[in-house]
Write a structure and sequence with these properties.
The protein is α/β, with parallel strands linked by helices. Helices cover about 35% and strands about 25% of the residues. The protein has eight helices and ten strands. A six-stranded mixed beta sheet has the order 6-7-8-3-9-10, sandwiched between helices. The longest helix has 16 residues. It is globular, with a radius of gyration of 18 Å.
Length: about 230
Amino acid sequence: MLELISVTKTFGRIKAVEDVSFSIDKGEFVFVTGPSGAGKTTIIKMILRDLLPDSGQILVAGKDITDLPLKQVPFLRQKIGVVFQDFKVLPEKTLRENIEIALAICAVDRSEWKDRVDNVLEITNLTKRQKLFPSQLSGGELQRASLARAVVVNPRIILADEPTGNLDWDTADSIIELFKRINAEGKTIIMATHHNLIIKKYADRLIEINKGRLVNDTKKKKADKKDNTD
């Protein structure tokens, strides 16, 4: 589903990401962790094609997106839903209208909007809040709205950048449970976080980045262990 091959990204003299390689299979839920400034967000932005690597390849469904013509980038983003720490909602739009914007951007036929939005509102338990504006919602509700907006376009991959960073533990825990539910329906989820309690409770696979380099991948360790026992 997704593969990074020897990816490097620099900003001036700073190597934000250095020679990073890993692959993620369809349907996996992967946590990308590391201290602030480790390179997690840079990796997320490169997968989304907000940034281009200086070298290396990024394959999405077998296609190298680093060579993707600019006019095709919107089609790539139709396959990728994004959940941000700061929600990225429009304050002058209702919750429902914020979700509909994703459908408009992806040119989904308007005849599909109602059913799609109704479905994600139900999944995220926001049906009764849909006519409210962002200023009338709690942090947890805003994060669920952000997730609903990401899911409504039916993406293959969901990228989440520190989605629990501004939330208390109980709210953060409920948000991850919602991610797990969506993952169980077949969505591939890549979540950047340094929330240790979340990682300890939920991580099945962990990719650890430090100073731009991959320092740990639990999938590789499991594979190496299996090879040694065969």
